Backbone:
C-alpha cells in the first residue's frame, strides 16, 4: 500500500493540471463552472484543443490517437479535466462510437471515421433507446431491411442527447426480426443525419433546456458499407459500449468541484456553520467515491470494465444529486430563480440514464453477489 | 379531535376540483399557460366562484381545502400568495377603511395583492431591514417577490423607528422579473422614495406578518399534499401500465415497495398538515401554537416532498424528465414551495427553540 | 374538523390518565419506564388491576368484559396506558386468542376460557410460526390428526413469545394435509401446555434476554372440544387475529414516552443542543404517527382493521427503533454497558415481528395501491 | 496510490484467518467463549504467531490487516485495545526502559495492557480531568475501561500540573465490571491514592494519547470492515438458500436490491478505511492528517456499520434476533466499536473544525 502517486504519475497529474488550467481558455471553463449551457461551438472548440494536444481520446488504440496510458492515468486525466471545468470530449464520439469502430470496424471504416470522430469534425448522436424500450434496450423495434446495397431504416429513437447538433448517428437496428432471441438480429449502423426521411425533434426538459431529442426514420436509405462489424452482432458491440459508458459516469471530479463551490457559496452567504455537518457528510461520501474510483482504476485489468463500476454509477449519481440539492438549500429563498435549482432538476437524470440505478442494483445483485 | 369535513366543505372541494380540472385539463395545458403572461388562467373563475373572498369570511379549513385542490394540478394561480397570505394580512392588520377598500376588489379578482416581505439573504426572517420607511416613502430592495409584475398592490414590510411596519404600495417601484423554477415569476423589487401608506395604524407589525405567513405556510403545505397525491397516483398508474422487459413495471417488487414507501410518507405528511390547519382554525390557538404547527407542517413538506417528488421522477425514468410530462413539474413546484415557506433546516431550528419546554408533545391537548 | 377532543372524550382521557397514574403502582410502571425486564408476576399483577377496573379487555364484546368504546376511546386508552408506563395486557390474551374465542368460539368454550383469559388466570402463548415458515405462515407443517375424541399433535412451533410462562397455547395446526390450497386444512386449536409430549425450549436473544421459545409437540393428545370454531377454518380466524395485532403495534404512546425520556437524559448529560435537530426531526415524525393513528381511529368503521394500519406498523416500528438508536447515541461511550444498548438491539425485532415491514409494504402495494 | 498488499502481507492475512477461524469456528463457539472469563481464547495463539509484537515492529498496514481478519469472526480478543492502542502508546510515549520492560511481555502475551482514558461524561475527549495525579498517586474514576478486569497493566491518563499525563499502574485500584453489549466486559475503575509511574519523561502527553487513539480508531475501523463483510456474505448466503412462500428469498427483488445497497456501502467504506491506514502508515503524515483520516474512517464505520448491521438483521428476519445466530452479534459489535471510537456526530464535528480550510479534498495530495 502506498499513499502518494508514483513520481511518474505525480508528474503526469501536474502535466494534466497545467495543461487544462492554462491551455483551455478560462472563458470556456467558466461556462462549465457556472453551470451555464454549453453551446455546440464551445464544446467543439474545447475538444479540438484537447485533440491537438493528444488529450481527446487517450483510451483509443494508439494508432488512432490513443496514449497507451494505465487505467490510473486515464482516471487522473478525467478527474483533472473535470476539476478544471474543461468540457469533456463528447462522450458519443470519444467513449462510445469511437471505441466500437476501433474495436470492431473494418480498416476502411476506421480510416473513414476515426480521425474526424476524435477531432469532432463529425458530431455523433446515439440512437439506442426507443419509446417503448427504456431500460429494456433489447426490445428495440427500429428496423433496417436490406434492399440491394442499402438498408432501409424505419422506426423511432428517443433520448438522443444533443441530437439537435448531430452530423451522424450510430444506431442499434433490427436487421433480423425473425431471430429466436431478442438480443439476436440487432446490428450497429452509422447514418448520416442529413439523409432524407430522418427527422429530429428536440424534447424540452423540466429545467426548460433542450438536451434530448426524438429521431424519426421514414424509409431512410443507408449504404450497406455503413454497417459496423458483422450484421446481427450489434448487441455484442452495444454491451461493449455500455460497459465503457458506465466507467466515466461517476463524475467524481465534477462533483468534487461543485461541492467546493457550494462551500465557498455558503461562506459568502454566511451559512457555512449551519450547513457544516451536511457538507462534512457529503465530503466524506465524495471521498469514498473518489477513493473507490482510484481503487478500481489502480487495480483494474486493462480492457474489461470492472463490475464495481456499478457502485461508481450508483453512488456517483446519488452524490451529483445530493450536492445539487445542497446547492439549492444553501441559496435559500433565492433558489426560486437560481440556476442551481435548474441544475438540481436536471441532475435527476443522472440516476436514470446510462443504465438506471435500478439496473445497476440488478447488476450488483446478479453479477457480483450471485443473487 | 375530528379530521372529517362537513357536507358544505365537501361541496367546496368538488366545485374547486371541477373548476380547476377544467382550466388545467392536462399537464400540457398548464405548461402552455405558464409560458404566456401572466402564467395563470383560472383567476377570474376562482373569483366568480367566490374563492378569492375566503380570507375575509372563512376559516383556514376552507382555504386549505382549496389549496390542496390547486396543488393536485399545481395550478399556477397565486391563490396562497395573494388570497391566503396578502388577503389574510390585509384582513388581520388593515384598518377598517383599508379592509373595506381592498376586500371587495381582492375578492372580485380585480386587485391582485402580493406581500413583499422576503429580503436578499434574509432566509425567511420576518424582521425587515433591507427596505426602510421614513417620511412617507420606502427605500430599498425586496427579493424574491412572487408575481410582483402582475400585482396591483404590494404589501411591503419595512424597517421603521417602531420596528417592522407594513405598507400598502400601488406604484412607483422598479422590477426585475425572472422565471422561477416552477414556471412562475418572481421579481427583485426596488423602492426609491416610493410613496407608501401604512397598513393599519402603524407601529410594529412583525407579529401580524409572522402570523399571516404561518397561516400561508399551512395553506402552501396543503398545496404540497395535493401535489404529492398526484405524484403518487401518477406513479402508481405508470407502474401498472408501462411495460419493460415484456412485463408491466409492477412486476418488479423493488419498484412497488418504493411506491408503498411514498404512500407511507404521504399519509403521515397529510396527518400533520391537516392537523396544522385545524390548529390554525381553532379560535383559542395562540400565535405560538400556530407557528409551531406551521413549522411541523413545513418540515413534513420538506422531507416528504423531496422523497415523493424525487421518487416519482425516478420510478418513471426518462419520461419524467420531459416538460411534456407532469411529475417533473410537480417536483419543481414542491421544491419551490419548500423554498417559499422555509426549508427543513429553518423549521428544525425554529422548533428546536421551544422543543425543550415540553416533555411529550401532545397535539390535541 | 376539530382540534380538541370532545368534552366526553376529554373526560375519558382524564379518567384513564388518572387511573393509570394513581391506581397502578409506581413500582410497576418504573419497570416499564426504565426498560427493565418485566417478570411474569408483575405483568399478572398489572393486568389484574386493570381487569378489576374493567380496563384489561375493553375491545371485547361487552358481555365478556368489553366496554363498547369507540375506536378513538380505545386509542386513547392504549396511548395513555403506554404513556403512563403501565404494562400492556398480555397481547396473546387480550388482542389475540380472546377476540378469536369471543367471535368464533362456542358458548361453552367462551365460558370456559374468556373470564380466565381476561384476568390472566390463564397465560396464553401463541403457536403460529414454524422454523420453515417465518413470514410465510400458511406453509405451516404441524399436524393434528384426529384419533377418536382427541387430536394427536406433532411438529414444532417457534418465536413463541414468553412461552416459558405459558399455561395454554393457541395453535394453528394442519388438520387436513390433503387440502388443495395451503390455506385450507388449517385449524385453530387450544392446548394445555402441561400435556405430556409438549416441551418448551427458551431461545436466548442477542440482547441476552429470553423472550421467545421453541415449542415441540411429540404425540400431544388434545381433546377435540379444544377446537375453536370449525375444523379447517383456522386460516380465517388467524387472518382476523393478525389484523387485530397490527392495530396496536404502532406503539405510539411508548415511543412518545421514550423520546421524552431521551430528551431529559440529553439535558442531564449536557448534550441537548447537540442532538436538538435530530430530536426535533423525530418529534415531528412521532407527531405524524400519533396523528395518523388518531385519524385512523377516529375515522375507522367499527370492527375491521383499516389497511392503513400497515402504515402504522411500518412507521411505528421504524420510530421505535430510531428513538432507541438516539437513546444509545445520547449515552455516548457509556452506551457500551447501558441497558439502552440492549433495548436498541432488542427493538430490531419490531420491524420483523407481527408481519415484517416487507410484508406490510406488500400489503400497501397490493391492497391499497393496487400494484 | 496503491491499495494492493504484498506477498508477505497476504501471508499474514492467511495465517491470521486460519488461526482465528480455527479458534472461533462458529458463532456458537464464540458465544460460548464470551460467556466464560475472560471472554476470549485466541490470545496465546496470537502471541505465538507474533501478532502481539506488531506495535513494536510493524506498520499500521499489518495491524489493520490483522484487525480486519479478527473482525470477520468478531473475535473477542482485545487485539486493538491492548496491542494497537496500549502497545502503540507504550511504544510511542514510553521511556526506553519502559518500552524494553513492557514490549517483551506484551508481545509474548503475558502482560495485557489497557489504556484507561475514557471518563464518565467526557464523550471521547482526550483531556483528562476525572483522574488526577499528584505526589506519585492517582485519584479519581475512569469509565468505561474495556477488559480492565483482565488487564495486567493500565495506562492511565490523568490531569497533572503540566496537562494530561500518562501513567503506568499495575495495582491498587478498584473495579466494577459490567458486560458490554457485544459480550465483552468493561469496568468503572476507581483510583484511591494509587501509586503510579509516569509513562515516559512526564509532561503533557495528550498529543501522544490522541495520536495513538486515532491509530487505534483506524484499526477498529478495519475490524468493522471485516464484520460488515461477514454481515453481507451471511445475508447473501441466507437469501440464496432460505425459502419462503415456496421459493428462495432471492426471488424477491426488493431484498436483492437491499443486499446490493449493502455491497455499495461496504465497498465505499472499505475504500476510506483502507486509505486511512495508508495515511497512518505514511511516515510523512502529520498527526493532523492522521486525525482527519481517522475521523473520515470512523464516519464510514458509523454510517455504513448501522446500515449494514441493521439490514443484515432485517433481511434475515427473526433468526437474526437469536443469540445462536451470527449477524445479531455483528450488529452488537459494530455498535460497540462505534461507541468506542466516537459516533458520527463526534467525528462530523471534529471534521467540521477544519473543513473550511480546504476547497477540494485531495486524498492523495
Residues:
Amino acid at each position: 500500500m502506498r499513499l502518494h502517486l508514483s513520481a511518474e504519475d505525480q508528474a503526469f497529474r501536474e502535466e494534466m493540471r497545467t495543461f487544462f488550467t492554462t491551455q483551455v481558455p478560462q472563458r470556456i471553463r467558466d461556462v462549465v463552472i457556472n453551470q451555464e449551457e454549453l453551446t455546440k461551438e464551445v464544446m467543439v472548440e474545447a475538444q479540438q484543443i484537447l485533440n491537438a494536444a493528444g488529450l481527446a481520446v487517450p483510451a483509443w488504440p494508439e494508432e488512432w490517437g490513443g496514449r497507451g496510458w494505465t487505467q490510473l492515468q486515464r482516471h487522473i486525466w478525467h478527474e483533472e479535466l473535470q476539476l478544471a471545468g474543461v468540457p469533456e470530449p463528447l462522450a458519443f464520439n470519444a467513449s462510445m462510437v469511437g471505441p466500437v469502430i476501433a474495436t470492431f470496424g473494418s480498416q476502411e471504416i476506421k480510416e473513414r471515421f476515426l480521425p474526424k470522430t476524435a477531432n469532432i469534425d463529425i458530431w455523433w448522436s446515439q440512437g439506442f433507446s426507443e419509446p417503448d424500450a427504456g431500460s429494456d434496450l433489447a426490445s428495440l423495434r427500429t428496423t433496417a431491411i436490406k434492399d440491394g446495397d442499402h438498408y432501409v431504416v424505419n422506426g423511432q429513437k428517443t433520448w438522443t442527447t444533443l441530437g439537435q447538433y448531430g452530423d451522424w448517428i450510430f444506431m442499434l437496428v433490427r436487421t433480423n426480426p425473425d431471430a429466436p432471441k431478442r438480443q439476436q438480429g440487432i446490428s450497429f449502423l452509422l447514418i448520416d443525419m442529413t439523409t432524407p426521411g430522418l427527422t429530429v425533434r428536440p424534447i424540452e426538459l423540466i429545467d426548460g433546456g433542450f438536451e434530448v431529442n426524438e429521431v424519426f426514420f421514414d424509409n431512410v436509405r443507408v449504404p450497406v458499407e455503413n454497417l459496423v462489424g458483422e450484421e446481427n452482432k450489434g448487441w455484442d458491440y452495444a454491451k461493449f459500449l455500455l460497459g465503457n459508458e458506465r466507467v466515466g459516469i461517476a463524475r467524481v471530479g465534477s462533483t468534487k468541484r461543485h461541492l467546493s463551490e457550494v462551500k465557498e457559496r455558503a461562506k459568502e452567504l454566511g451559512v457555512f456553520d449551519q450547513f457544516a455537518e451536511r457538507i462534512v457528510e457529503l465530503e466524506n461520501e465524495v471521498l469514498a467515491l473518489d477513493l473507490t474510483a482510484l481503487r478500481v482504476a489502480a487495480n483494474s485489468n486493462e480492457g474489461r470494465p470492472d463490475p464495481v463500476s456499478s457502485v461508481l454509477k450508483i453512488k456517483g449519481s446519488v452524490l451529483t444529486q445530493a450536492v445539487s440539492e445542497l446547492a439549492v438549500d444553501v441559496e435559500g429563498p433565492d433558489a426560486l430563480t437560481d440556476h442551481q435549482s435548474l441544475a438540481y432538476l436536471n441532475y435527476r437524470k443522472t440516476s436514470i440514464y446510462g443504465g438506471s440505478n435500478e439496473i445497476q442494483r440488478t447488476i450488483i445483485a446478479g453479477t457480483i453477489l450471485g443473487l | 379531535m375530528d379530521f372529517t369535513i362537513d357536507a358544505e366543505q365537501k361541496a367546496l372541494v368538488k366545485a374547486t376540483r371541477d373548476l380547476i380540472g377544467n382550466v388545467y385539463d392536462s399537464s400540457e395545458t398548464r405548461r402552455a399557460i405558464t409560458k404566456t403572461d401572466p402564467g395563470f388562467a383560472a383567476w377570474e373563475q376562482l373569483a366568480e366562484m367566490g374563492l378569492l373572498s375566503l380570507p375575509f369570511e372563512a376559516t383556514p379549513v376552507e382555504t386549505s381545502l382549496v389549496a390542496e385542490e390547486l396543488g393536485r394540478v399545481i395550478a399556477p394561480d397565486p391563490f396562497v400568495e395573494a388570497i391566503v397570505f396578502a388577503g389574510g394580512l390585509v384582513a388581520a392588520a388593515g384598518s377598517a377603511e383599508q379592509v373595506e377598500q381592498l376586500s371587495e376588489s381582492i375578492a372580485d379578482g380585480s386587485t391582485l395583492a402580493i406581500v413583499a416581505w422576503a429580503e436578499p439573504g434574509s432566509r425567511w426572517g420576518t424582521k425587515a431591514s433591507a427596505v426602510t420607511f421614513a417620511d412617507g416613502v420606502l427605500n430599498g430592495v425586496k427579493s424574491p417577490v412572487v408575481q410582483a409584475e402582475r400585482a396591483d398592490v404590494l404589501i411591503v414590510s419595512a424597517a421603521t423607528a417602531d420596528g417592522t411596519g407594513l405598507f400598502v404600495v400601488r406604484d412607483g417601484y422598479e422590477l426585475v422579473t425572472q422565471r422561477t423554477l416552477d414556471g412562475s415569476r418572481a421579481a427583485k423589487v426596488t423602492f426609491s422614495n416610493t410613496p407608501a401608506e401604512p397598513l393599519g395604524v402603524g407601529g410594529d407589525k412583525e407579529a401580524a406578518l409572522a402570523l399571516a405567513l404561518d397561516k400561508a405556510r399551512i395553506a402552501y403545505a396543503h398545496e404540497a399534499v395535493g401535489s404529492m397525491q398526484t405524484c403518487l397516483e401518477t406513479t402508481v398508474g405508470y407502474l401498472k401500465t408501462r411495460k419493460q422487459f415484456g412485463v408491466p413495471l409492477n412486476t418488479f417488487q423493488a419498484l412497488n415497495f418504493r411506491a408503498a414507501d411514498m404512500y407511507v410518507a404521504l399519509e403521515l405528511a397529510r396527518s400533520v398538515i391537516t392537523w396544522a390547519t385545524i390548529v390554525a382554525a381553532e379560535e383559542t390557538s395562540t400565535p405560538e401554537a400556530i407557528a409551531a404547527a406551521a413549522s411541523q407542517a413545513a418540515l413534513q413538506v420538506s422531507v416528504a416532498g423531496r422523497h415523493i417528488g424525487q421518487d416519482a421522477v425516478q420510478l418513471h425514468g426518462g419520461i419524467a424528465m420531459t416538460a411534456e410530462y407532469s411529475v417533473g413539474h410537480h417536483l419543481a413546484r414542491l421544491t419551490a414551495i419548500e423554498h417559499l415557506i422555509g426549508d427543513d433546516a429553518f423549521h428544525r431550528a425554529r422548533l428546536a427553540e421551544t422543543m425543550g419546554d415540553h416533555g411529550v408533545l401532545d397535539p390535541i391537548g
